[in-house]
Structure formats: structure tokens, C-alpha cells
Amino acid sequence: MSTDDDNAGELARVYALLLARAGETQVELRLDATRRACELLGDIHTAAPTITVTGTNGKTSTARMIDSLITAHELRVGRFTSPHLHSVTERISVDGAPVSAETFVRIFDEIAPYLDIVDAQLEAEGRARLTYFEALTVLAFAVFADAPVDVVVTEVGMGGQWDSTNVADAQVCVFTKIGLDHQAFLGDTIEEIATTKSGILDRTVEPSPAPSPVAITAVQDEAAQAVLDAEAARREVPLVTEERDFRLLDRQRAVDGQLITVQGRRDVYSDVFVPLHGIHQAHNAAVAIVAAEAFLGAEDKPLDQETVAEGLARATSPGRTELVRTGPSVVVDGAHNPDAAHVLADTLAEAFDFDYVVMVLAMLEDKDIGGVLEELHRSADVFVVSETLSARALPAEKLAEAAREWVDEDDVFVASDLNAALMKAIDLANGVDAKSPGIVVTGSLYTVAEARLLLGRGEDQ
After folding, report:
1. Could you tell me how far CA 373 lies from the centroid of its own chain?
2. Which segments constitute the Mur ligase central domain (predicted)?
3. How many C-beta atoms surround the C-beta of residue 89 within 10 A?
4. What are the C-alpha distances in Å from 272 to residues 254, 285, 289, 310, 348?
5. Closest CA to 154 of 264, 268, 67
6. What are the backbone angles phi and psi of residue 66, rounded to the nearest 5°?
7. Pairing label, strands 172-175, 50-54
8. Tell me, what's the pLDDT at 182?
9. What angle, 0 to 180 degrees and rounded to 10, lies between the N-to-C axes of helices 418-431 and 445-454?
10. Alpha carbon distance 155, 425 (integer Å)
11. What pLDDT does 23 receive?
């Protein structure tokens, strides 16, 4: 019988093998490599119908809510999301929970010889071997085929057209809000980014297990919506659009979340509790409901009010405007681009009664630092800046220099690491004459992951 220590050691071995591959920022613009591996393993990418979620912000939360809704409908769901906060096993979920280390290792060892075959073929062609994300995608589909699951929910890693998750032809294609991010790979304009993301509408499997998909989209900027309309029309895919075809009718703040009423395509779902904060999560929930409606449309038993209430009540989204401590209150959020920072600032103003905010900020160097600070400075009384553990971390002094352009120099503190930053933030929050001081930790999911560990929330998923 294997012990926890044995499983941890084996998981570390497998994770090291995955990390030895080209990392997630070393993207290969291709689908055929992932497809080769999936086909060698018995077409595992077609083993269950798929719902694919792309967009810029809100992908993970929406994917998790779709998972919860379909699980409440008594179907078995496999979910593949990224990035992870604490353990790579979080990326591959079955029955609403990360797969065990034992399963992760077992399936990897079973597929490893096939990954080696594809690597050898690629290298013989003078091409790069399977990347970390490509190998992880193959592993996810293998886990889901082994389980087996009734439906797979995948979150696109980056873009859509050439993202390895797109090896599966999705039955339901979901678009969350599209904005500017990853411009080095996706393009410098909303139109270019939306075009790449619309690639999830492509059919790449012959004969496709989902020849007649449906697309669901959140409210988009005019430029992104025009692209999605055109691309869906070109492929003759029905496009179900928020505000045009479904809408969030009402929402009210509630303890530990909000009550929402959604006009879906089949029904109105009234006063549904969502244990997540912010209008963005209410819109994400509306999109998730309509995606679940679309997927279950062929079922004998359609989605109903009771299932929606049960599914959304169980929804979680760690690291997204998440209260992880009280006395003083600490909220963590993975906002790493201006759109996400804008949403965070609005959510703090609406959902939390802080009258003094210490903003702990650590970011990656390739992000829009000025754009994020422009949004966050309206919520912050003081900044404590630090560095993430990532090799791509922005130096703390450089971040402090940028922050001083938005707030007084005396309101920017520099900490050498995140632990020191949290200690400083707690001192500042406890030392101020305020009824309800709060600490907000943000700038990157790397930052959030480390903060959750330091605050004893690393096991909560």
C-alpha cells in the first residue's frame, strides 16, 4: 500500500519530468502534436463530449461553475483548468475535486511511452517535442478516459485556435470577456485576439463527435463581438450572446456572496445564491447556466431551478476575490491585467466594507504594470510591493517606482519577499485608526498561491 510520502515523491518525479519540457510561455502554434499523442492512445480526445471555455478573464471561474452545474445534474465531469495554485493535480479534476497524486502518476506512467514516440517523431522532423502544456493536456484527456467521465470541461490555456485543448471538438464553445493579454502570441488588437480565440469553433476531428456545436458568449466589447459574429456565421455555428439571447436580470448582495436572477434560454432562474463576489461573477454564472442549458438540451431531463441552485451554491473559485483571513481581513485575487484589476477594484468597493486598504502587489515582468496600477490605486490607501517566486517576477524596486507614479511616495513600502510583505501589511492594517481595515493581495496567481500557503489556505480547493 502506498503512503502519502510515497505519492508525494512520485508526484514530484512526474512533475519534474513535465517541467523538463518547454514551459507555458514557450508556446508552439500547432495542434497536430497533441492530436498525434491522443490518437496513439486510442482517440482519448473523443472519449466524452467536451465543453471548451476561452476568453481573457473569468475562464476558470466559469469553467468551475459549468462543472458544478452539470455535476448537480448527476453527470460525471472531468475538468481541465490552468494555471494551478499549489499542486499540478489541481488542473485535472474529476467529480469536482483534483485527481489524487496516485492517479496522476499512474496515468502519466501509462502514457509516457506514447509521449516518447511523438517526441521522437517531432524531433525527426526537426520540430520541438511536446511542450509542458501539450503533455499535460494529453494527460488530462487520458485521466478522463480512464475515469471515465460523461463530459469534459476544458479551459483554453492561451488563445484558442492552436491551443492544445482545441484538439477536442467542443459541443459547446464558451467565450468569456475578451481583452488585451498575451499580446506577444495573440496579437496587439482586440480583433486579432478574438479571431484567434474563435478558433475553438473549428472542427478538427473527422468525423467530428460534435459536428454541430453551439457557441455561448458573455457581453463583449463591440470589436470582439463583431469578430465572433462573423466567425460564427462563417462556420454556420449558432451564437448565443448575453444581452441579445440571455441576460442577468437582477442581483443582490448577500452574506458571503450574492443572489442572482438569470433569464436563460429555457427558463428564468430566480434568486439563485452564488457564493462568489462581484458583478463579474454574476455574469460568469449567467454564462455558465446557459452553457449548461445548451449542453443538456439533448437530455431527457433539462436543466431546472433546483439543479441550478444546487450547482451554483457549491461553486468555488480559489484565488478570485477570495477572503482567506479575518482580523484583519485578507482578500486574495489573481488580477494580472487592467481589465481584471478594474473588476477587482469595483468588487472591493461593492462587496467589502473596507475603510482602509493595504494593497500587497507582486507582478510578472511581461504584464501591463501601469494599466494595473491605474485601476488599483483608486482602491489602495497604501501599497506594499514585493516579488513573486516566478523566474519572470518584476523586481520589487521597479514595481515600487511604477507605484509612486500613482500614489504618494510615503504610501509605497517595499518588501523583499511576500512573507515580509504580508507581515508589513498586517502591521499597517492593525496600526491604522480605521473601523474596517483590509488587506488585498494581488497582481498574479503566483502571488495569490504563495499568499494562500503563507496564510494556511493551501489545501482549500
Report:
1. 22
2. 53-292
3. 22
4. 11, 10, 11, 9, 22
5. 67
6. -60, -45
7. parallel
8. 59
9. 70
10. 34
11. 84
395 preceded by a cis bond (ω within 30 of 0): no
Count helices and strands (H / E) in the chain: 15, 17
Burial class of 353 by CB neighbour count within 10 A (0 to 12, 13 to 18, 19+): exposed
Name the band, by pLDDT with cuts 50, 70 and 90, for residue 300. low
CA-CA distance, 214 to 199, in Å (whole number)?
Answer: 13
- pLDDT of 2 reads 57
CA atoms within 13 A on the CB side of 195: 9
Q: Which residue has the cell 487520458?
A: 142
- The mean predicted confidence, pLDDT, of the chain is 94
Q: What is the phi-psi region of residue 43: left when phi exceeds 0, alpha when psi lies from -120 to 50, beta otherwise?
A: left
Contact 372, 348 (CB under 8 A): no
DSSP assignment of 195-229, as one string? HHHGGGG---SSS-S-SS-EEEE----HHHHHHHH
Strand 92-94 and strand 77-80: the pairing is antiparallel
- CA–CA dist 396, 432 (Å, integer): 24
pLDDT > 70 fraction of the chain, expressed in percent and rounded: 97
Give 308-356 pLDDT, tens digit per residue: 999 999 999 999 999 999 999 999 999 999 999 999 999 999 999 899 9
User: What letter does residue 365 receive in the DSSP assignment?
Assistant: T
Answer whether residue 166 shows pLDDT above 90. yes
SS3 at position 360: strand
C-alpha cell at 401: 517606482
Structural domains of the chain, ranges and CATH numbers in brackets? 4-313 (3.40.1190.10), 322-454 (3.90.190.20)
- HSE-CB for 136 with a 13 A CA cutoff: 30
CA dist 314 to 99, 273, 284, 303, 318, Å?
Answer: 18, 9, 15, 16, 13
pLDDT digits (tens, 9 = 90+) for 91-125: 999 999 999 999 999 999 999 999 999 999 999 99
Q: How does DSSP assign 184-204, residue by residue? A: HHH-SSHHHHHHHHGGGG---
Give me the DSSP letters along 260-316: EEEE-SS-EEEEEEESS-SHHHHHHHHHHHHHHHHHGGGSSS---HHHHHHHHHT--
Sorted by sequence, the CB contacts under 8 Å of residue 62 that are 6+ apart come out as 53, 55, 174, 176, 284, 287, 288, 291
Taking only the tens place, the pLDDT of each residue in 392-437 is 999 999 999 999 999 999 999 999 999 999 999 999 999 999 999 9
- What's the grid cell of residue 296? 443538456
pLDDT of res. 134: 98
